[in-house]
């Protein structure tokens, strides 16, 4: 896929009304205008709110075009670029979009921002599907002034949809602005194309008029589409005349679901010179793709007042596909839309011809969209698991773990990741992250990688315990050697398919599970050396009497339970002796119910005096020499 036809930013003007602009930023309607590389929010001269740069992956940097005075709008002067040395091959903007259909517009610019005098080569994906390709060298106007590209795509992932940029060679992808807004679910034949296709704009022109659209003129467009002048797409070997509605109102425009603007139908081209001449537009395309063509008509010639006065054939890619009589279809001064899908083109140019039958043909506008099938994505549960691993393993930005781990298939998968096609999508089959300087831990979310065959995390600085989820039944090779893992080996590790298990040079302890050790017995490879705390299998020390598989065995648990019961019994006996069983002369230390009650105090005193008398009598009986009271002998 080559660099798509791009809308050059050459004009500036007053803005469209805010009420007509679907791109007003904010989470409420999930519309965002992002000034890539910008550091502050602002409102443009056209009343559009722009957001400072956000939602981007790590490793990139902000830049500024070399000659900002050539760019009339602030969002065109700044950019974000992603050097693969720091950001990896794949970098993304993760846009918070719920499921639905969205209109996306990008502004790409180079203007020698990096002083290298070389435009970069990179790809762009939306919905995990390759949609745009930039190849160096760019056309000079695009490199110097920048260019717009737009498309309609479905977002089916939550909580974010990724717009990703993939570096080719060592080039740094760059983007200056991103605009995204929801569109009507039925827009552009959404009932047919919504769920399975991305529609990439390969040309949107207004016939007999100059460029117009929000952000460039005062004219409104509900989707913020910009309509290019048609002169660059005409077959210049033919003669054309421009006509207008002459100020008369054109009905039937600006209607859902497509909201085509009224201005589009207020001008048109027809043939000049000989009435037998035809209209032809030559639209650049890529081969092997199908295209959705939209033709826009309105009978704006007051001299046509009945059916049959203007009839012409539509010929697409050399095939006569329909015959049009505008007045017969809708009458005069009324918008009429017609669409057709051209399949499996083999030429790099799509010819759109209007051949006269009666009178001269007429055309108000033309749109051409490449129908790009959605690519197969990674199974959602495995995407979630990989993102959890990215966090727990502390994957560095330079590895480019952004977007979908496996898609688009034309790109390499995430660094260290191998993918294959599964029954329900792409699946991860291999992770090779040896010697990457990782310092995190293994999350138990790894259990969702149910197709994982090989896992190599050796020679890192990973810590923590081994999660039970590490024992996937699909796993054939496991190498987590030379890390800093602690704790016992989960009993889940050791499936019937596991043939290699390298756990050496860690800080593991406890008894080795029998199913894991049996790998070596049955001809596999197992290495547990360098773990001083492991025990219980040949070549390793015997485990303690009550120790098994990293914890107490059944005998140990019984002994522990018996010990606990004995201690509890002793405690109960002591409590009984000290606190419950009382002699006949025990003091009564009950706190009085009413300290102000004379009777209560008297009763306490009488009880104390009786106890004291008994004690004195007993002491006198056992002491022949008498006793002392208040220092006086008796």
TrEMBL record:
GO cellular component: membrane
One Pfam family of this chain: Malectin_like
Domain spans labelled Malectin-like: 34-370
Cellular compartment(s): Membrane
Membrane-spanning parts: 558-579
Membrane-topology annotation of the record: Single-pass membrane protein
Primary location recorded for the protein, binned into one broad class: membrane
Signal peptide: 1-18
Keywords from the named record: Membrane, Signal, Transmembrane, Transmembrane helix
InterPro entries recorded: Leu-rich_rpt, LRR_dom_sf, Malectin-like_Carb-bd_dom
Source organism, top-level taxon: Eukaryota
The protein's name: Malectin-like domain-containing protein
